[in-house]
Amino acid sequence: MVFFATLYFLTIMGGELKINKILSAVDLGPDTEKVIAYALWLSGAGGAEKAEIDMLYVMDYALTPPGYLMPYIEKEKKTDEKELEKWVLKLKPYGIASKHVIASGRLVETFNVSTKDLNADILVLGHKSHMIRPSSSERLIKSLDIPMMVVRGKKSENARLGSVNIKRILCAVDFSGPSKKALEFAKLLSENTSSELTVAHVVSSVKMEKGLQKWKDMTEADRSGYKDALVKEAEERMCSFLNVCDRAKSVVRIGVPYTAVNDIAAEIDVDLIVMGARGLSYTKGVMLGSVSESIIKSSPCPAVITR
What is the pTM (predicted TM-score) of this model? Predict the structure, then answer.
């Protein structure tokens, strides 16, 4: 089972972020409250009115269960419905309208159908990793072509209903079109929640070293000057890029992109990372870029992937 939450109609209109409805899908395991807690926080992050939160529980079957198992499955379903109803009641004191739904089928296919049928705009899901094979959450992150929020890291460990408080947001950009969308989303989210926004760009040390290898006779002084020039150019591009986000502070750093982004997040005690799903190295047919995927796997806090 996988736990996640999906937001409907998350739109940016007239410079305002609108969130009308949140679908929170849960596995009824120990991490269920984390996802619902972040869904509850998001319900107040998209405008003056609180968004509705509906809960979806997916019974993951690789094959259609044989008939003799149906009585057991129906009994399980009734038990799960009672547990889901408890979460509906827990949300009422927060003034949240809520209901629950149970769906079954193959994991990714069921999610694809559900997000389309329900007009889902953004997915919020927990994150777990396995050493040998992709986990259920990793399969969804790489397969679904919708915005999503991945709940992971130490910052989310103690999340409970009403306890989530996003004070600092970090937006990672590479000056591409997708990162511009991420910046716009981060800016509006920051404004709606009165949180501090920092924008970060990382000059890839791997690409830089490949460039330097072409000039093997370059002196150390010239190498240093080349690095300084790359940073200066990135800082100038950042100034131009931030015309749409004058509230933001900015950081430019040389390093391995995913490592540097997560280091910056830890250094300034960030509560949420926002980034585009794909950047300048976009490959057609790939739902999630390698940098975004790597950031998610090791981020110290939840991360939002915009599309």
Answer: 0.87
